[in-house]
Amino acid sequence: MTSDTCRFELFLLGEGEKKIGETPFPRMSNCSDFLIKKEDHTIGNLVSEHLKQHPHVLMAGYKVPHPNVPELFIRVQTDGTITPKDAFVEVCRDLIGKFAQLGREFTREYELRRMATAGPSNGDGGANGGF
């Protein structure tokens, strides 16, 4: 096994391995723990911070149990109006939409800047004096 193969194992799911699992947290009402495999602080912080902004979420937090194990736990407690799973799914869908919009805006801005720096195409050497 090469070192490249080991790196891929950090983020690729194995056969039959589930990305996310939910376990109700019995000591608190309307509370669940979500185990997310092959992820780290990047996703944990992003999702938990957006969960905290949800109007029906009372508490959200995450932890990475061990730095060498690529998984994290996110705990979510809601006010009972919706389930923790519904809040989790809603926040994830919202984040996907926001990142899609960011991608579209980035592409648009990139294309506009590319066109602006290309200069005129009338054979005079362009906006940079032929360089």
Automatic annotation (TrEMBL):
The keyword Nucleus applies. It is found in: Nucleus. Residues 32-103 form the DNA-directed RNA polymerase RBP11-like dimerisation domain. Its main location: nucleus. InterPro entries: RBP11 (IPR037685), RBP11-like (IPR036603), RBP11-like_dimer (IPR009025), RNA_pol_Rpb11_13-16kDa_CS (IPR008193), Rpo11-like (IPR022905). GO terms for molecular function: DNA binding; DNA-directed RNA polymerase activity; protein dimerization activity. One of its GO terms (cellular component) is RNA polymerase II, core complex. The keyword Transcription applies. Transmembrane segments: none annotated. It holds the Pfam family RNA_pol_L_2. Keywords: DNA-directed RNA polymerase, Nucleus, Transcription. GO terms for biological process: transcription by RNA polymerase II. Belongs to the archaeal Rpo11/eukaryotic RPB11/RPC19 RNA polymerase subunit family. This is DNA-directed RNA polymerase 13.3K chain. It comes from Coniella lustricola.
